[in-house]
Amino acid sequence: MPDLHRVFLVGPMGAGKSTIGKYLARQLGLAFADTDTEIEHRTGADIPWIFDVEGESGFRDREQQVVEEMTQMDDIVLATGGGVIMRAENRAALGSRGFVIYLHATVDEQVRRTRNDRKRPLLQSGNPGTVLRDLFKVRDPLYREIADYVIDTDGCSPRTVAQRLMEALTTER
């Protein structure tokens, strides 16, 4: 079984990182944290507001600082934002400090899951399907680059994905 005292979840928006992460943390007996939630807690502002005021680069600077700190915490399942892998420093921290799980979701599934979500800044302008497809082309190889394990989340409840992860991870040798 892999060392699971630091588990990092990566993947696109709508893959279920936060929800699946909570189930997985409970099953592993670990704490759960979310980088976006931590950024909001530290700033006292929500992610869309940070994007509006500081732009994406300002948000990514904050995200990098949080990733640097939180990837050094023990006994944690950490859900990350979909764009976390865009910075090499984040990929290095995630890939070298813990067990990285890529929660894969197709673009069609992402569109379905995010269609009513107004808190995703990158989806507020343009066609969400086109935006998600463009992001997927760039980000999918980067998720795979650092992933120790990849699981498909399409058509599955978060609880089912967490159960499948537990089965796979506890039988993997």
Measured between the Cα atoms of the first and last residue, the distance is 5 Å
Structural class: alpha/beta
Q: State mean pLDDT (0 to 100 scale).
A: 89
Q: Which CATH class? A: Alpha Beta
Q: Would you count the extended β strands for me?
A: 5
Describe this structure in words.
It contains 7 helices and 5 strands, in the order E-H-E-H-H-E-H-E-H-H-E-H. The radius of gyration is 15 Å and the shape is globular. With 173 residues, it is of the alpha/beta class. It has a single domain (6-171), classed as P-loop containing nucleotide triphosphate hydrolases (Rossmann fold, 3-Layer(aba) Sandwich), CATH 3.40.50.300.
Top keywords for this entry?
Rossmann fold, 173 residues, alpha/beta, 13% strand
Q: Brief description of this entry?
A:
With 173 residues, this protein is of the alpha/beta class.
Layout of secondary structure:
Elements: E1 6-10, H1 17-28, E2 31-34, H2 35-43, H3 47-70, E3 76-79, H4 88-97, E4 99-104, H5 107-114, H6 128-146, E5 149-152, H7 158-171
Parallel strand pairs: 1-3, 1-4, 2-3, 4-5
